[in-house]
Amino acid sequence: MALCRCESCGVKKSIQTYVPVNPVDYPNAALICGATKCTNHAKIWLNNNEYIDYQNGVKTFRGSNTNFAKVRVD
Ligand SMILES: [Zn+2]
């Protein structure tokens, strides 16, 4: 599942490796870091399988709350 975090917060303490990619219109996208109390603009962090999909042209990914929204990378 893709995560949304700013470059300062990043993705820490995860058993998976995540790769940051830019959302459409970054840094002016309406995507805000999901870390507690952080209001910075976020990048989209893809896990290994998602990053392989991204390299093969997939541009839309689901977050951990699958019914809230999907995100689109640039
Ligand atoms: Zn942040």
Kindly summarize this structure in a few lines.
The protein is an alpha+beta fold. The chain has one helix at residues 48-55; strands at residues 3-5, 18-21, 43-47, 60-62, 70-72. The longest helix has 8 residues, at 48-55.
Overview features:
74 residues, alpha+beta, three-stranded antiparallel beta sheet, two-stranded antiparallel sheet, 1 helix, binds zinc ion
- % residues in beta strands: 15-25%
Overall geometry comes to globular
The number of domains is 1
User: How does the major sheet shape up?
Assistant: 3 strands, antiparallel
List segments where confidence is low: pLDDT < 50 over at least 5 consecutive residues.
Answer: none
Q: What small molecules accompany the polymer chains?
A: zinc ion
Number of helices, where a helix is a run of at least 4 consecutive DSSP H or I residues: 1
Label the structural class: alpha+beta
Instruction: Kindly report the average pLDDT value.
Output: 89
**What portion of residues is helical?**
10-25%
Order of helices and strands: EEEHEE
Rg on CA atoms, Å:
11 Å
SS elements, strand count? 5
Report how far apart the termini are. 17 Å
